[in-house]
Input
Amino acid sequence: MTGVRNIFWWLCFALAAVWAQSRLPGLDALAAGIIILFQERDYRNMLWLLPVFILIQEGMGTRFFGGAIIWYTAVVLFFLIGHWLFEVDTFLFVLILSASLVAPYMAIEALMAPLQQLPFQPMQSLDKSVMQAVFLPFAWQLLVWSRRLLKPRYSMTP
Output
């Protein structure tokens, strides 16, 4: 994929993710982009996109302050663990990954709420984490399809 088209795609993705997060508080639409980055093994884009995603997430204020770094670390760690066990460019892998991220999502909320002297609401946190788990595989599939439109012979592996 050419550099300009790639940057344009990531810009459109970031804008769509911010729009989705503004409509559904507690949802992290940028996590699907992180999965795409790791599946493509695009380390050059990863170096500038991960800090941008963290800044966007922290700046939006839809999560507890500081939680985005821990959340994205959990996404990356669970992806790397799953990478050893599964084929990473399948819908099933992303479905299992998103289901396994429910517990870290709730744990981060439980950790960050008292640090900021806010009440932790377990049922609300569970609702948001399940919404994230349901959203992530379908958002990932939509992103894969859109990447294939830009590059017809698109493959997740190099």
